[in-house]
Design goal:
The chain is mainly beta and 110 residues long. The protein has helices at 11-14, 40-46, and strands at residues 23-27, 30-34, 53-54, 61-62, 75-78, 81-85, 96-98, 100-101. It binds FE2/S2 (inorganic) cluster. FE2/S2 (inorganic) cluster binds at residues 64-67, 69-74, 85, 87.
């Protein structure tokens, strides 16, 4: 006799989470679904977006690396504020996230 197959192995299923309904954030003008309590980085990853910053030297792409607020690779501009660690910021309904280039203060360049 075969045992019934368990449901899909998703992060939410593994921890038996039952999040509320998704809301929407915006990333570079694109609507992105996010779950309550989900970080901005996790919401972007869930949509296959893995880079949302470029380095100061060379303009190389970066995204989440450590996921715990230590590496600062996941910086982005969130609601107009540059240098926000997206792995630590919960995605709030209506948040506007934009790719950050360089140090995030291009408006101060002279
Ligand atoms: S991924 Fe390392 S600080 Fe956010």
């Amino acid at each position: 006799m075969r045992r019934p197959r368990p449901g899909p192995r998703t992060p939410a299923a593994l921890v038996a989470a039952t999040p509320g309904p998704a809301h929407t954030i915006e990333f570079d003008g694109r609507a992105i679904p996010a779950l309550p309590g989900q970080s901005i980085a996790a919401a972007l990853w869930a949509q296959g977006i893995v880079a949302w910053r470029t380095t100061r030297v060379g303009g190389r792409p970066r995204g989440a690396f450590c996921g715990i607020g230590a590496c600062y690779d996941c910086l982005a501009t969130v609601n107009g504020r540059p240098n926000q660690r997206t792995c630590l910021l919960p995605a709030a309904p209506g948040d506007t996230v934009t790719t950050q280039e360089g140090h995030g203060h291009a408006e101060l360049a002279v």
